[in-house]
Amino acid sequence: MKALWISLLALVLVMPAFGTSIIFPTFSTPVMAGDTLVVVSPDRMAFIGLSKSGKKMWTQPLSTKGSLIEHGSGRTLLVQGSSVSSLNPKDGTIKPLFDSDPKVEWMKYSPEADLFWGRLLGDEPGLALFDGDTHTCLAKEVSGETVAYADAGLVVIAKGLRKPVRGGHTFSKGWIEGFDRKAMKRIWSAPFEKEPSPYHFVVRCGGYVVCEDGRELMVIDVKSGELRRRPAAMPEDALGPKGLRDENGDLVYLTTVMNMSNFHESEQTLYRLRLPHLEVLEKKVMKVIEAVTSEKAGDLLITDALYRTACFRPDGSKLWEHFQMHRTPVIDGVIYFSDYKEGVARMGALDVSTGDQTIFISEKVEMR
């Protein structure tokens, strides 16, 4: 049973939202574009613009399925495979921006580095990277699977050697490489020894890049590439560490001890550690199911799971919990979200301090 939960938690790593939807059809994660909320319809064939109060302002049909990108300049962009367009959030009009490479499966974007990137299809899978302003191709990395982290000076690419299996592939080897953002020159490389998949949590904390590898943590000096590998602080029978994030230069992550008799009584521990030696500064125990990421909102802590988002008080007690959410970060005390309930895809707003939610739009949908 524990192996099943490890597999489910691993799936969260590749999903492009705070909350995830592996089974249920929903509106996309809302994007705040100026004063307009923009979402994609459950079938991904239309954009919808709404005011902050939930009034529908416009609908823009699409010729092929699309997704949204928030550009570092503040623009809202539409992605349709390898093509990127600019969206006017005031009226929903669309203007073509650029076509990347016909072999790119689907374009993504890292705003911290102003970098477009997408996986290349073909006999030798790889990753193509494009400048966010000039749209010129900066690099094509064979075996590249994802941009694990990026900022103005550093790009971390996760790579893997694929191993064909019936109906798809697995990985025989995985590693990450650090690149100088300006020259796209590789400056260091570090292997995953416990889990060969390239899909791991990766975060930068000050002068270090940290990633999990099974029950171990890898701490990499950004400039020198010096690697420290240590067992993660966690209970002996816990899953994790997951949801690595930076908090004022310290490393924060979650671990889970599953209660197989009552999942609602599963125990999460939030750790805060000092780098580079991973000294434990704080740990807090909470009751929540399979949370893998966390976000601070004042004194409150919000966690995201495979199918739930929950909010905790400073003492670790639960304030509220909601099922199946794709959400924005907290914006002025509000989370804008999309979810699924009883055959209906919904999009609305949630008050963080109370957990009260208001539904803006809804659509009856069929299960995929």
TrEMBL record:
InterPro entries: Quinoprotein_ADH-like_sf, WD40/YVTN_repeat-like_dom_sf. This is Pyrroloquinoline-quinone binding quinoprotein. The lineage of its organism: Bacteria, Pseudomonadati, Verrucomicrobiota, Verrucomicrobiia, Verrucomicrobiales.
